[in-house]
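Lab notebook, bench 4. Still working through the backlog of constructs that have no structural model yet. Next entry is a single chain of 160 residues. Request: give me the structure tokens for it.
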Amino acid sequence: MDSSTILDHALFQLTPTRTRFDLVLFYEGKNEKLDSGLFEPFISHLKFARDEISQGGYSITLQPPAPDLCASFSTPAVLERFVTIETEILKIERSIQANANGRQEEDANGHTKKSTDLTKAKGELKTKDEIKQEENSKVQLQRLLETRKALLWKEQAMTY
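Model written out:
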């Protein structure tokens, strides 16, 4: 098992005398026996486990609390900031995708349309320097968008 694996729950299976245990971990639909031995050293600091034993039963299940998205936002301002960041990330991703698909412009409603090149319409040809400069600016824009997106992800992680 990888140390970064998120556990579903842990189960202490007790002997009939409730003095020894087998610790079984459940994760990603799998289970793995991690340890066995005397139960007292493990529960000496867990009031919950001692209460479970006093009620009877031969197993104690430890589960993490269910994640609650709304509870993770301490104030409405934090929630609003999270939504604002998420919206900006989505706009950047659409822009990156539009740049990758060719020259497209996005209107206020998020619809994309092909842009027309006025120099081609007039019959003029671009020089190699103009083409190279245009490609460089596209690459710079792409890098800028990727950098901004990474920064927003970090800020979102700190907000959340």
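Notes after review: Residues 128-159 form the longest helix (32 residues). The radius of gyration is 29 Å. Flag for follow-up if needed.
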